[in-house]
Amino acid sequence: MTTNATEPILDDATKEFVRRVIHAELVSINEIKKVVVSLMADGVRGNLFSPERLAEGLVGADLLTRWQSRKLLSGKSRGFHLGNYRLLRPLGKGGMGVVFLAKHEVMSRQMALKILPAEASRDPRRIARFKEEARASAKLEHANIVQAFDFSESDGKLFIVMEYIEGHDLHRAVAKDGVMSAAESLDAMIQTTEALVHAHQRGIIHRDIKPSNLMLRSDGVIKVSDMGLARIGYSADGNDTPNRLTGTADFIAPEQAVNSQSADARSDIYSLGCTWYFLLTGKTPYTGTSVAQRLAKHQTAKVPLVKELRSDCPPSISALIQRMMSKRAEDRPASAAELLSQMKRLSGFSDSRGELANRPVGDSTNTAFADDSSSFTASIDDSGPLREAGASMYAEPMEIDFDRLPPMEALGVPVSGPGSSPGSSPGAAPGSAPAVPLGLASGSGPAVNGQAMPQPQFQTPTSATFAGGMPNAPAAPPARQTRSQDAQQNILLGIGLAVAVLALVVVVGVTVYQLTREEKSRTQLKSTEGNGRQVIVVEN
Fold first, then answer.
1. Buried b (16+ CB within 10 A) or exposed e, 290-313
2. Count of CB atoms situated within 10 Å of the CB of 54
3. Which residue has the higher pLDDT, 132 or 474?
4. Whether residues 103 and 67 fall in one domain
């Protein structure tokens, strides 16, 4: 049995999802309407709509990111904005902060925001260290160092605005595309060493050089990250206990493992040697089942040779890496500047600069982070006031009005299929009313899964005809006539009138002639045409 009751296009769950999207100030109601119309054009309607399907459509239209979509579907409607920035997705996480890709609300420029975690925001010591990191970052301005642009606070949250690097770190580069050639690795090391020269000359020691802190941009440029954290010399988890380990066990210098505060430029050189070893072999220099075992090997184990795993590695590179990883700091190159000079003198590799530009580079999405959005929301979700616009928008009951859907012309949806004529829909019988597949209104439409679908209604003039749910184009106005055309029509009209009058006169004359055949003395009717345009009646 068919019902004439109106069937809503969006169920309650989907409408609630729409409310969350609008409350989050991510997508406007008109943009949502356009996506709904587009989905309906693809055959999505009635009970086929769901929050997940609408979210997929919004992501496909580049109105939401995957991370935003997952948060909204999980019931979140806050935590998408920070100051003048809209958060797009997480890029990384550490003890000193969570890094998000964000876009400036006005300038639409993409930046990386390093946000101090919520628990750290309640610790004055960690707040002071975070500010010191920002000040240290501001001192560094180099082509191979991730630049910090601003430090700000919004809703009680502290964050550093940094340069966004479109690419990925060298750890992922090796994991994804394999080990580097000798020339590629030398290019990466020269760029990194140039950044260290710049930092060391300003008294800044990195203390955590490793592949994951070296970003490879799409044009082959290396960018060293976390320089500010290195300057203040605190551990990544914010613990300032004396002799607390700062660095990563697989790449840390022996003296730094004993006392992080004693690290100097040569400690960065050791870590850079371990990083170079990894780029060429895909392995860390020392292995072990525990952190303690790996730290002990950095102290006592023999320095491994790259040539044992890469027979094609030039001896000069293998020897330099071995020297950089010397157990005693005094046996290493004395400074980053000296190391840079040695790298540039390596025989046969003077043209290595730019080798990384030919290496494939993906985007900076870290799937491990992107797929687990819950770990990034605690610091930005539940503290701080609501944005005023969003709060007022959500405070009042809101009706989702889809009765006036946007015109299909704006969406580029075809009016009819190939070979169809205006006013008809594919497969429709001749003379039948055209189908109107889009919209939301009362009335029943085609059945889906045995249920009648609502037939859409459009706010259009009643005189308009429709083809495939769209008003036909208005009839073209008559073409404007030229003066010569008007003159020709006047001449033809005059001739036509003359002929008509002549015919009338002939008929009348015949009639009179028949009635007065015997009276020859009576008036005779003669007709002539003056220049073919006049009729003259003459009496005898």
1. eeeebbebbeeeebbebbeebeeb
2. 26
3. 132
4. no
Report the greatest alpha carbon distance in the chain.
153
Number of helices and strands in the chain (H, E)? 16, 15
Q: Per the structure, how many domains does the chain have? A: 3
Distant-in-sequence, close-in-space partners of 177: CB < 8 Å, separation ≥ 6: 359, 360
- The answer to the question of residue 448 being in a domain is no
Give me the CATH number covering residue 243.
1.10.510.10
**Residue list, annotated binding site:** 114
Is 299 domain-assigned?
yes
- The 3-state secondary structure of 419-463, one letter per residue: CCCCCCCCCCCCCCCCCCCCCCCCCEEEEECCEEEECCCCCCCCC
185 and 50 inside one domain: no
Q: 172 and 156, same structural domain?
A: no
User: The domain spanning residue 114 has which CATH number?
Assistant: 3.30.200.20
Q: Which residues are annotated as a binding site for ATP?
A: 114
Angle between helices 315-324 and 336-344 (to 10 degrees): 170
- Any domain includes 433: no
- At 273-329, the pLDDT tens digits run 999 999 999 999 999 888 999 999 999 999 999 999 999 999 999 999 999 999 999
Do 204 and 174 lie in one domain? The reply is yes
Range of the domain at 124: 79-164
Q: Is 208 designated active site?
A: yes
Q: Are residues 71 and 205 in the same domain?
A: no
Residues 220 and 330 in one domain: yes
pLDDT digits (tens, 9 = 90+) for 84-104: 999 999 988 765 678 999 999
- For residue 319, what are the contacts with CB-CB under 8 A and spacing of at least 6? none
Options 169, 187, 208, 226, the catalytic residue? 208
pLDDT digits 0-9 by tens, 216-247? 998 999 999 887 655 444 444 444 444 445 56
Q: Which residues lie closer than 8 Å to 390 by C-beta, 6 or more apart? A: 23, 24, 25, 77, 78
Residues 179, 69 share a domain: no
Residue 194 lies in a domain: yes
- The answer to whether residue 333 scores a pLDDT higher than 70 is yes
Task: Grade residue 402 by pLDDT with cuts at 50, 70 and 90.
Answer: low
193 and 329 housed in the same domain:
yes
Cα separation, 51 vs 76, in Å, equals 13
Contact 444, 454 (CB under 8 A): yes
Where do we find the tokens 């003048």?
A: 84
CB 157 within 8 A of CB 380: yes
Enter the tokens of residue 456.
Answer: 């859409």
| Token reading at 496 | 């036509």
Torsion angles phi and psi, residue 92, rounded to 5: -175, 170
